[in-house]
Write a structure and sequence with these properties.
two-stranded antiparallel sheet; 4-stranded mixed β-sheet; Lambda Exonuclease, Chain A
């Protein structure tokens, strides 16, 4: 009899967990967001353990702030020596992360929204697949809150096909919370309001609490069934994953078969 797999904080990001469950980050790795392109080949390489996405400094700054509110900052520092200069002091980006934390802690309403249960894991079914979620601040019976550290809360993003987007649409955070809401409702029977608790990395830190309306959540979740069906067919070997041709994994594994024309250099919007 196969050993039962129980999802925990320790194995949440493992290869076995990614094989058994879909997550928002995996789904976005396959298909991207309104503002960022995905890559099916890279996603499958990640699931199979053949590709590891190295964290950028921006990602580490966000994780630094996340880990503080989780109560795991000291462990985070231990496993990320790249946060420090040779003399043992924090690099400037993480000094700023400390400043962001202090700014957040000065705001009572922000802290109220961040007062929920930290990194709560739930699993459930959506569009015929099993999903896993891990929530930054889950306030039972009241709200789901996700903490985001961004460059500029009010920065607009422009794309030829999608037009003007805010940072939530650009990075698919509305879809992320829509999935969270669905899985929480499956587990508890309660459909909870969803919020982004945002702080930015400006010279003077700005903060906002942003509610994503139910209509926006429903819209973000529309079409997920098609995506899940395609992911399942790729994972089952029924169809081949497509290469985006622009991600790091595609660059690393690229094989040139013939020259391209000069006009093709403008075919892709980066």
């Amino acid at each position: 009899m196969a050993k039962k797999f129980t999802l925990t904080n320790e194995n949440y990001y493992t290869k076995e967990a990614n094989e058994k469950y879909l997550s928002v980050s995996l789904y976005k790795m396959f298909f991207g967001t309104l503002g960022q392109k995905g890559c099916e080949v890279q996603a499958m390489a990640y699931i199979n353990g053949d590709y590891k996405k190295e964290p950028t400094t921006a990602m580490l700054v966000g994780s630094y702030v996340d880990s503080y509110f989780e109560g795991t900052l000291e462990n985070f520092k231990e496993i990320h020596p790249e946060l420090f200069k040779r003399d043992g002091s924090l690099k400037s980006e993480f000094v700023q992360a400390e400043d962001i934390i202090k700014r957040i802690e000065r705001d009572n309403k922000f802290m109220q929204y961040m007062s929920g249960e930290k990194q709560t894991i739930m699993t459930g079914e959506l569009a015929g697949a099993q999903w896993k979620i891990k929530m930054d601040s889950y306030i039972p019976h009241r709200a789901i809150v996700d903490l985001k550290v961004v460059d500029d809360i009010y920065k607009p993003y422009y794309h030829k096909d999608t037009g003007r987007l805010n940072f939530i649409q650009e990075r698919g955070y509305d879809f992320q919370l829509a999935v969270y809401q669905h899985i929480v409702e499956m587990n508890t029977g309660e459909r909870l309001p969803c919020f982004i608790a945002a702080a930015d990395k400006g010279k003077v830190t700005n903060i906002e609490l942003i509610q994503i309306t139910q209509g926006e959540l429903d819209g973000a979740l529309a079409g997920v069934e098609y995506g899940v069906n395609r992911i399942n067919r790729i994972k089952n070997g029924e169809i081949q994953p497509e290469r985006c041709g622009r991600c790091d994994y595609c660059k690393e594994t690229k094989i040139i078969h013939k020259p391209i024309s000069m006009s093709e250099l403008l075919d892709f919007e980066g």
